[in-house]
Write a structure and sequence with these properties.
- InterPro entries: NNMT_TEMT_trans, SAM-dep_methyltransferase, SAM-dependent_MTases_sf.
- There is one protein chain.
- With about 230 residues, this protein is of the alpha/beta class.
- It has a single domain (about 5-10, about 20-225), classed as Rossmann fold (3-Layer(aba) Sandwich).
- Helices cover about 30% and strands about 25% of the residues.
- It contains 7 helices and 9 strands; from the N terminus they run H-E-E-H-H-H-E-E-H-H-E-E-E-H-E-E.
- A 7-stranded mixed beta sheet has the order 3-2-1-4-5-9-8, with helices on both faces.
- Strand 6 (about 170) and strand 7 (about 175) form a beta hairpin.
- The chain is globular and about 45 Å long.
- About 35% of the residues are buried.
- The chain binds S-adenosylmethionine (SAM).
- The site of S-adenosylmethionine has 18 residues, from helix 5.
Length: about 230
C-alpha cells in the first residue's frame, strides 16, 4: 500500500481524523506483506485476510520468524529507502509484526467477507489485485466491491490497487484468470457501493507478457459518507 495522504487529496482537515485511524483490513493479502510496509506507520492495528489457508500459513510463518518464511528483506529495505531511511528496515519489520493483529479467512463473494466472524466496521479497507482474480464477471465484481465496502465504517476509506485490462497472470508455471477491468468499471462499482471517490490514478506500469497481459495499474481512494451526511 503506497503512502497516500487521503486527507490531502480530499482537501479535508485530517488533524482530527488521523488520530482515529485505528484499524486497517487488507482483503486478499495473499502470502504477501509488502503492501502493508508503509501502512503500519499509520494504523494501530492491521488485519490481514485471504481465501487460501496456504497463504495465511505463509503470513503466519513470516510473523513468527519461521526460518522457512519468505525473505521480504530486500522489499523492506527498499520501502525504508523510499520513506527516507533504508537503515530502519529491521525496526520496520518489527513494527509490522506488532501491528498485524489477526490473520483471517475471507471470501469477497460473501455479503460479509469475514463470515462467520462479524467485526465492527473499520477505518480503512485496502485490497490489492484481489477482486479481479476472485470475480469472473462484472456483476460479481460490483457485488464484491459492495461486500468489501460493508467492512468500512461511515467516514472511513476504501482503497483499491487494481490491475487494468488483464485476462491472465502467471505464478511460476501456473496460469490464473483475471477479470478484465477498466478505470470506468472500477470507479462505477465503487460509486455503486455508496462511496465518494476522492482520488484515482493509473500509474503507467507495463508488464512482460510472460508474467501477465495487464496494461496498467490503477489506484482508487474513496470515502464512505459519514452518518450525518
Ligand atoms: C493476485 S493475488 C494478490 C495478493 C496480494 N494482495 C498482493 O498484492 O500481492 C490475489 C489474491 O486473492 C485471493 N483470493 C482469490 N479469491 C478470493 C476470494 N473469493 N476472496 C478473498 N480472496 C480471494 C487469492 O488467494 C490471492 O491471494
Amino acid at each position: 500500500m503506497p503512502a497516500i495522504d487521503v486527507g490531502e487529496m480530499s482537501g479535508e482537515n485530517t488533524s482530527g481524523t488521523w488520530s482515529h485511524r485505528d484499524t486497517l483490513i487488507d482483503i486478499g493479502s495473499g502470502p504477501s506483506i509488502y503492501q502493508l510496509l508503509s501502512a503500519c506507520e499509520s494504523f494501530r492495528e492491521i488485519i490481514v485476510t485471504d481465501f487460501l489457508e496456504q497463504n495465511r500459513v505463509e503470513i503466519r510463518k513470516w510473523l513468527e520468524k519461521d526460518p522457512e518464511a519468505f525473505d521480504w528483506t530486500s522489499m523492506v529495505k527498499y520501502t525504508c529507502q523510499m520513506e527516507g531511511d533504508r537503515e530502519k528496515w529491521m525496526e520496520k519489520e518489527e513494527k509490522l509484526r506488532r501491528t498485524i493483529k489477526q490473520v483471517l479467512p475471507c471470501d469477497v463473494t460473501l455479503a460479509n467477507p469475514l463470515d462467520p466472524l462479524v467485526l465492527q466496521p473499520v477505518d480503512c479497507v485496502f485490497s490489492s489485485y484481489c477482486l479481479e482474480s476472485a470475480c469472473n464477471d462484472v456483476p460479481t465484481y460490483r457485488s464484491a466491491v459492495k461486500n468489501v465496502g460493508s467492512l468500512v465504517k461511515p467516514g472511513g476509506h476504501l482503497i483499491f490497487a487494481v490491475i487494468l485490462e488483464e485476462t491472465y497472470y502467471m505464478v511460476g508455471p501456473h496460469k490464473f484468470n483475471c477479470l478484465y477491468l477498466t478505470p470506468e468499471i472500477v470507479t462505477d462499482a465503487v460509486k455503486g457501493a455508496g462511496f465518494e471517490v476522492l482520488w484515482s490514478q493509473a500509474l503507467g506500469f507495463t508488464f512482460p507478457l510472460a508474467i501477465c497481459d495487464a496494461k496498467d495499474t490503477f489506484f482508487i481512494v474513496a470515502k464512505k459518507p459519514s452518518k450525518s451526511q
